[in-house]
């Protein structure tokens, strides 16, 4: 953001924040570093207007800035649901909600997963999220972006725990919800393991001590999110078809997709992997719930409210 625009935004009277679409449900904005990716926010009007006014008067204290929660969508890309589902919590607990949108098809017509792995042929989704958070800091200086809470459901859960491995210093709390595949802390190449993190991420290493310092982790899945789910069987068949098709391609590397297993088993194995490396996470298997964000949301909100 250029200095003139930044100065104009900073001088905007608080009473105009709503009509400028800078509070409430903020329209999707393109990420400047990668316009393929966009994001929306929910900024509580009353709370942020007070912070904005204090900022203009030079009386804003660090504790007055609104905490930030980042909620990452799953494969269906329902970013507005990620935002809207936490509006009541944001109003009650004076925080901002950020929901990025990583579109499908970024790396080809069948690409659904590129953002989940953090690095793909054309996308560095972890860096894009950091760039988006930097933009939030510029446009909404009354929001605390130094550290944030990260939530991800399904494909977003894949993104969330992998982001935690690489950027733990930016995170305050982490919630991993029903991921279909995970990166356990094992001696396998990324994203099946963490053996080559330094090569994949340009010299960044996985700092277990920094990860442990986050200290507040929730792993959550529905008890019925298992092999009996018809969708799980369809995913197994799709994996077999994709592996067979990819083996016929001249660019095939010889590495197939990870085995498809139930989300319950996948999350339990991640929990065990973390425990073996000293990461103490709360595991919740919710009775009567399948692969459903709405079904798990009350438990997620209860976890958020523990320290609010």
UniProtKB/TrEMBL annotation:
InterPro entries: AB_hydrolase_fold. Gene3D superfamilies: alpha/beta hydrolase (3.40.50.1820). It comes from Extremus antarcticus. SUPFAM superfamilies: alpha/beta-Hydrolases. This is Uncharacterized protein.
């Amino acid at each position: 953001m250029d200095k003139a625009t930044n100065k104009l935004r900073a001088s905007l009277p608080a009473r105009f924040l709503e009509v400028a679409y800078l509070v409430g449900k903020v329209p999707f904005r393109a990420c400047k570093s990668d316009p393929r990716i966009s994001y929306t926010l929910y900024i509580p009007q009353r709370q942020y207007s007070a912070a904005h006014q204090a900022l203009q008067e030079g009386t804003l204290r660090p504790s007055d800035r609104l905490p930030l929660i980042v909620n990452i969508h799953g494969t269906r890309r329902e970013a507005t649901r990620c935002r809207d589902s936490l509006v009541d919590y944001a109003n009650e607990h004076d925080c901002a909600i950020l929901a990025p949108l990583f579109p499908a098809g970024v790396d080809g017509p069948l690409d659904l997963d590129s953002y989940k792995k953090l690095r793909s042929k054309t996308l560095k989704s972890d860096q894009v999220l950091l760039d988006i958070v930097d933009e939030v800091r510029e446009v909404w200086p009354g929001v605390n972006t130094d550290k944030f809470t990260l939530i991800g459901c399904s494909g977003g859960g894949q993104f969330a725990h992998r982001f935690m491995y690489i950027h733990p210093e930016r995170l305050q709390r982490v919630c991993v919800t029903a991921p279909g595949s995970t990166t356990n802390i094992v001696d396998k190449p990324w994203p099946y393991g963490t053996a080559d993190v330094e090569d994949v991420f340009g010299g960044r290493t996985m700092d277990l001590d920094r990860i442990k310092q986050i200290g507040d982790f929730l792993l959550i899945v529905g008890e019925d999110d298992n092999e009996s789910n018809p969708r799980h069987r369809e995913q197994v068949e799709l994996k077999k078809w994709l592996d067979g098709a990819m083996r016929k391609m001249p660019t095939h590397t010889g590495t197939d997709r990870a085995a498809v297993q139930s989300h319950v088993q996948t999350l339990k194995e991640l929990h065990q992997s973390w425990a073996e490396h000293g990461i103490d996470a709360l595991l919740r298997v919710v009775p009567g719930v399948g692969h459903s964000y709405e079904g798990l949301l009350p438990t997620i909100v209860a976890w958020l409210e523990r320290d609010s």
